[in-house]
Design goal:
Elements lengths: L2 E2 L7 E5 L4 H12 L3 E8 L17 H14 L3 E5 L1 H17 L6 H20 L4 E3 L4 E5 L5 E5 L16 H4 L2 E2 L9 H10 L21 H9 L4 E4 L5 E5 L26 E6 L4 E5 L5 E12 L8 E6 L6 E9 L2 E11 L6 E6 L2 E13 L5
Parallel strand pairs: 2-3, 2-5, 3-4, 5-8, 9-12
Antiparallel strand pairs: 1-6, 6-7, 9-10, 11-12, 13-16, 13-18, 14-15, 14-17, 15-16, 17-18
Length: about 375
């Protein structure tokens, strides 16, 4: 039988504080539980803006100041650590390279893997900390043998286990998610922050990609990769439009295709394939997006790797639902077959496997097999 992680002694905890309400409340709860908590804000931008753009971003000077004020109210020491260079190399450059290769990456997973639970955790352990605390909504469970498991949050509406599926058992042993096992709405978290006197109680959530503050992903990529006109073609290969860079498209995209004339059947067309080699984007009917199987690379397991084939549920995007799959690890590639076809699966995204609420592991989608004959 498994039990939620309840440390037998106070821990020396490093609380990652983004400047938002979730991480502030998480740090406050950790301190209230009796742990020796130190707050740290990660400076991830080499040239942080003074102020946020609406609710976007989480790397501004304003965010750093908000985190410091929250730490002062909680009564814990606070530091700012400069991880901008590591973030640029491991997250931003990876993001650009993936789009250049025709894939659709998830920078939040990469940040959790490479920054918060690699660079930050390694530094924390070297300094004598026992755990890193974040405001993610997920739950770490400790088994009787001392091993750890990652589970979904108690509230599925806020569950963030998908973006934590890259954590291995060693990292889970030093992870603390104080918000994960409480059935509270976001309004209640904000109310708790207000009761605690935290000024971030009414601060809007950050969203989208934190290092693209204005939300213009296509413009961000164009500035770095350059605009390169190419063809938009249908499933037969016939040219039906043009674009200024294949990196500006994702599998399943419907809007912004700028196709000059409608399909013969009058129905909308969707992006089916992106070829960086010849800078071509292929579009077609929505039915052609149905995927029956996929292969995924770079698997990361939250514990031991599964032995032999198994039946799981899978999540394919951060805010997506679950779908039943059969999966097997063959030659370090995860081979997945869907019980029912799923739509709009993009190479570069993560597939996260679950056994009930337990996160089994994560892998990066490399190729897909479609139900209908396409490109």
């Amino acid at each position: 039988m498994t039990q939620p992680t309840t440390p037998p002694r106070p821990l020396k905890v490093l609380a990652a504080m983004s400047g938002g309400v979730d991480s502030a409340v998480a740090a406050a709860r950790a301190a209230e539980a009796g742990h020796d908590v130190t707050g740290v804000h990660l400076a991830l931008s080499a040239n942080p803006q003074s102020f946020r753009t609406g609710a976007r971003g989480c790397c501004t000077i304003e965010d750093s100041r908000d985190a410091r004020r929250a730490a002062d109210v909680i009564g814990i020491p606070f530091y700012v650590w400069d991880l901008a260079e590591r973030f640029r190399e491991d997250v931003v450059e990876d993001f650009i390279a993936e789009y250049e290769a025709g894939r659709t990456p998830n920078p939040c997973l990469r940040c959790n893997e490479k920054i918060k639970f690699a660079a930050l955790l390694d530094k924390a352990l070297a300094l004598g900390f026992d755990a890193v605390c974040t405001g993610h909504y997920a739950t770490v469970v400790r088994n009787e043998d001392g091993s750890r498991e990652l589970h979904r949050a108690s509230d599925m509406a806020k569950d963030q286990s998908y973006v934590l599926g890259v954590l291995d058992e060693r990292q889970l042993a030093h992870a603390m998610f104080p918000l994960g096992d409480t059935l509270t709405t976001k309004d209640e978290i904000r109310a708790e922050a207000e009761r605690r006197g935290l000024a971030v109680a009414k601060k809007p959530d950050s969203h989208d990609i934190c290092f693209i503050a204005d939300g213009d992903t296509q413009g961000f990529l164009a500035d770095r990769l350059g605009r390169a006109e190419g063809d938009i073609v249908d499933e037969s290969g016939a040219r039906i439009g043009s674009h200024e860079g294949a990196f500006g498209f994702t599998i399943g995209q419907r809007k912004g295709l700028r196709i000059g004339h409608p399909a013969p059947d009058g129905k909308p067309r969707y992006v089916l394939d992106i070829s960086p080699v010849n800078n071509t984007v292929t579009v077609g009917p929505v039915e052609a997006l149905d995927v029956t199987a996929l292969s995924a690379i770079k698997p990361r397991w939250c514990g031991n790797a599964p032995a032999g084939p198994g039946t799981y549920t899978a999540q394919l995007r951060a805010h997506g639902g679950e779908t039943e799959v059969s999966a097997e690890l063959i030659d370090d590639e995860l081979q997945v077959r869907f019980t029912e076809p799923v739509r709009g699966v993009a190479p570069g995204q993560a597939i996260v496997l679950y056994d009930g609420t337990r996160v089994v592991g994560s892998a990066t989608i490399a190729t897909t097999r479609r139900a209908a004959a396409t490109v």
